[in-house]
Amino acid sequence: MSAPTKDTHHLCVLVHGLWGNPQHLRYVADSLREKHPEPHLHILVAKSNSGNFTYDGIELGGERLTREIEDELETLEGQGTPITKLSLVGYSLGGLVARYAIGLLYSRGLFDKIEPVNFTTFATPHLGARTPKLGFLGKLFNELGSRTLSTSGRQLFITDSFRDTGRPLLVLLAERNSIFMRGLAGFKRRTLYANIINDRSAPYYTTAVSAVDPFVDLEAIQMHYIKGYDEVILDPHRPATPLEPAQPPQGWQKFVIGSQGIIQKVPVAIMLSLLLPVGLAAFLVNSGIQSVRSSRRILLHEQGKAGISIKSYRMPLFVEEMQDAVEEMIQDSHPGQISRPRRRSSSKAQGQVQAQVDSESESSTTTLDPKDEARMGNNKEFPPLALTAAQSTIIESMNSLDFRVFPVHIHRHRHTHAAIIVRMKKKSFDEGKVVIRHWLENEFDV
Fold first, then answer.
1. Which of 92, 125, 139, 327 is the most buried (most CB within 10 A)?
2. Which residues contact 120 (CB under 8 A, 6 or more apart)?
3. In this predicted model, what pLDDT tens digit does every residue of 318-335 receive, in sequence order?
4. Is 186's pLDDT higher than 80?
């Protein structure tokens, strides 16, 4: 890890997830400050999308976050500490909001002045929340999810049509020539942490951007851990290998095992039959109320009555469109000039990012790293999941950049989505502390 110089001022922005608030990231922020107590690291725990504001969609959330970051930069500069480096860390939905904000910051020229360093997500559903499971329950989950979380739900379940593109926002976020991928390509480090089990909010395949899930049956694989991290962080290059199939039980043994499985499931089935209808009804009522409120907030935002001038954030989504917009402004300011200006990069930084995306995209279409081959479904050891065409497109596009993906095995708590960042003080969440320690020791460059 490189040491900061005396004149370096680094801003790290932490972004919470769906229904979240800044308190969810308290352990992450405290650990970051303990590891880097020097005054040159500044931490912003974003709060502009707290609570039910996360219903309002990734675009609106990204615009709020961009405004919050720009305000913080302006405040710090006014205090005599101009920021020279920027990092973004997203948890769950916050990772997608951060990716949208990165595209806006890039298009507004921020990375010409400030170096983007670290981009990290913890349990972020980069492929959306749509389940690849077939059957009635899978279809019901996808249908309810897309209809009960307002704009965020439609975007997470990839049923939206963003602006006039006719395509889902998550697909556009991963479009190689979009401002979002261009901005992301400029970061020095890009790291993803993905739970391998018990993350019902964001399963492994979507948080690891993978077309396969080697961890469906842990008894059928041999896992390979990184030493020094308490069998929590798996080797990103070879996280698991399949074991030889065990001899299936026969006769009486098969009957006993089957009976035990049924007996164990009976109490759970009874509890669900009693609680699920009440819980589901309460959830649907609350979701309906919040969706109405969200629609009102979105309308006020679109009308410029929510404290943000949206015109300054409605940038062209693709680099060519952005260049065309600049050229049109030039022509409008010089009406007597007939010839069309020769297209060129708007900045040195944009040219460097363009070269990086092009070179990484070229290499990704020729020889892929074995781990990337596996994530894209080209893996004979583990069968590919039943993903949609949109999800497969996102995987291929995102693999044009170099992401370091760390599978996380949390054993002690079934709510791994909360445990991965130690969302609250619980002894059973201590394995999340191992995850944060690994990130700070190996992946966060100050």
1. 92
2. 87, 88, 89, 90, 189, 190, 191, 192, 193, 439, 443, 444
3. 866 655 554 554 455 444
4. yes
Q: Which amino acid is at 98?
A: A
CA-CA-CA-CA torsion sign (285, 291, 296, 297): positive
Per residue in 80-113, pLDDT (tens digit) is: 999 999 999 999 999 999 999 999 999 999 999 9
Residues ≥6 apart with Cβ < 8 Å to 346: 109, 322, 323, 326
Helix or strand holding residue 71 (H, E)? helix 58-78
Contact 50, 291 (CB under 8 A): no
Query: Per the confidence metrics, is the pTM higher than 0.85?
Result: no
Under 8 Å between Cβ of 121 and 93:
no
Q: What angle do CA 164, 165, 169 make, to 5 degrees?
A: 110
Q: Are strands 404-408 and 115-122 parallel, antiparallel or unpaired?
A: unpaired
Q: What is the DSSP string of 373-391?
A: HHHTT--SSSPBP---HHH
Residue 341 structure tokens = 């200006």
CA pair distance 50, 28, nearest whole angstrom: 17
pLDDT single digits (tens) 336-385: 443 333 333 344 455 555 555 555 544 443 344 555 555 555 566 788 99
Whether 445 and 118 have beta carbons less than 8 Å apart is answered as yes
Residues 10 and 84: beta-carbon distance below 8 Å: yes
| CA dist., res. 35 & res. 4, Å (int) | 13
Cβ(312)–Cβ(109) below 8 Å = no
User: What gap in Å lies between CA 125 and CA 174, rounded to an integer?
Assistant: 13
Quote the crossing angle between the two packed helices 26-35 and 430-438, to the nearest 10°. Answer: 50
Ranking 285-294, 359-368, 402-411 by mean pLDDT, the lowest is 359-368
Determine whether 296 is exposed, middle or buried from the number of CB atoms within 10 Å of its CB (0-12, 13-18, 19+).
exposed
